[in-house]
Write a structure and sequence with these properties.
single chain, Nucleotidyltransferase, domain 5, Arc Repressor Mutant, subunit A, 14 helices, alpha/beta, globular, about 40% helix, five-stranded mixed beta sheet
Length: about 400
């Protein structure tokens, strides 16, 4: 690989354009002018300088001509030599890793499933994740010298100011840990950490069902219920990093006690664990949410009813969010999201009865397109789009 300057050594307009290309991927000169506020002439001159440095290439692709005709616009992108970003998704039952170049091309990815009784202590999980990163990076043909940053997704709240893991019911042993610092020790590269549902939102906005959305809500419907929001192209985390925790919105102040300590939380009626436990009264052989979803899609009546009831509760909860936030898009992902219209149709119906008409008319509810890769790709996107959150190199 040709040796080129590191992006962090650039200054002025060169750094602005390089950062814009890192966030946008392949882009036209007009895209870059709009993103940076630089004139077309300045963009062209600066791109010429970056091309001479080996940081920018013109791959030969074009965008279609506009509706009024004219010549197709050529695109430029960061060179493969500019570096790579790594995304890591840690879950209760899986580890997933992707390596992508700064032009948004995935070079290699891998993953492994964890048995329910496997050790889930933070040190062991981080050790296994680090080993999988090394293997996947080697498979991509790149080295740690090429890595500009690692994004790490975890199913737990991440305190914005400190980077510490907040109280987690899914990974309780991780509470109070600083995973970025711990993972940095293992890999010796910059690491930034984010809640997995936030990463799903970011990935769907960049590459999936949420492209061009101005105000997006993403639901990760799995064992529990997580949520993420992208507003104006940026993640909205709230003051302490817990924005989007819709699974612990209380629908019944006198309901059962949730694992979070509150009563009547949405997870108790619509979370995967609750659904499987209920189904096993009539389907004792069903062990997982994925099995439940498969049966529902195949037409099993009790499974379809369970999912429809869960969707109704989700629609009621989302109605309040819709009135407050007024988004243009709601994306449903996670294992339960794979139920498609079995889930989405009753959710839309409940939503229409729970929010003001103008907000309902303005929103679209869609199934996510990235599937189980969403959070892993979102960890890559965190490095690419939000490079300001990636610590400076050592």
């Amino acid at each position: 690989m040709t040796t080129v300057p590191k992006l962090e050594t650039l200054t002025g307009n060169q750094r602005r354009l390089a950062d814009a290309l890192r966030a946008l991927g392949p882009a036209t000169r007009a895209d870059l002018a709009a993103a940076t506020g630089l004139s077309r002439a300045t963009v062209s001159t600066t791109l010429g300088d970056l091309t001479e440095l080996g940081l920018v290439v013109e791959p030969g692709g074009t965008t279609p001509a506009g509706p009024t005709g004219g010549r197709p616009a050529s695109v430029v992108q960061l060179s493969p030599a500019a570096g790579v970003a790594i995304g890591v998704d840690i879950g209760r039952r899986h580890l997933m890793v992707a390596v992508a170049d700064l032009a948004h091309t995935v070079l290699a990815e891998d993953g492994l499933r964890l048995a329910p009784d496997e050790e889930h202590s933070a040190p062991q999980m981080l050790d296994r994740a680090a080993e999988l990163v090394r293997e996947t990076l080697a498979a991509s043909g790149r080295s740690f010298e090429d890595v500009v940053g690692v994004g790490l997704g975890i199913p737990a709240p991440v305190v914005t100011d400190t980077g510490l893991i907040g109280a987690s019911n899914i990974l309780p042993q991780w509470s109070g840990l600083h995973p970025a610092a711990e993972f940095t020790k293992r890999l010796n590269v910059p690491v930034c950490v984010e809640n997995d549902a936030n990463l799903g939102a970011l990935a769907e906005h960049m590459w999936g069902a949420g492209r061009n959305s101005r105000s997006l809500v993403y639901l990760k419907l799995a064992t529990g219920i997580g949520g993420g929001m992208v507003i104006g192209g940026r993640l909205f985390r709230g003051v302490s990093g817990t924005a989007g925790e819709i699974g612990h919105l209380s629908l019944d102040a006198h309901g059962d006690v949730c694992r979070c300590g509150n009563r009547g939380c949405l997870e108790l009626t619509s979370g995967g664990t609750a659904l499987v436990e209920t189904l096993r009264r009539t389907h004792p052989e069903v062990q997982s949410l994925s099995e439940l979803v498969q049966l529902a899609v195949a037409g099993d009546v009790p499974c379809r009813r369970l999912i429809a009831d869960a969707a109704t509760h989700l629609g009621v909860a989302l109605g309040g969010l819709l009135n407050l936030m007024n988004p243009d898009l709601i994306i449903v992902g996670g294992e339960l999201g794979r139920a498609g219209d079995v889930l989405l149709d009753p959710l839309r119906h409940a939503l229409s009865r729970s929010a003001v008409a103008s907000a309902v008319d303005a929103v679209s509810v869609r199934q996510g397109t990235l599937g189980e890769r969403a959070e892993m790709l979102g960890a890559v996107a965190l490095v690419l789009r939000e490079g300001d959150r990636v610590p400076a190199p050592f």
